[in-house]
Amino acid sequence: MLRDMFYTGIGAATLFKERVDLEIKKLQDNGKIKTEDAKSFLESLEKKGKEEDEKVKDLFKKALKDVIGELDLATKEDIAKLKEEILSKV
Asked: Residues 7-23: pLDDT tens digits?
């Protein structure tokens, strides 16, 4: 379920980027926007997109950690501690 939501988000972002690129190209072809302005806009949009991507990844990681905690599953740290305890007793 989480993976489906993640891929849906990626698909939506890709579709959005393609649509924006197409609309910018139309504006350039009609002379309604300068190439430099279009490039600047796209760079700004890409930067904001990357920032949002990081926020989504952080939220996804937090949600996943919360689910793991609620299910009481062992984490890497838990396993490492158990391994240390076992090795110290040998």
From this structure: 777 777 778 878 888 88
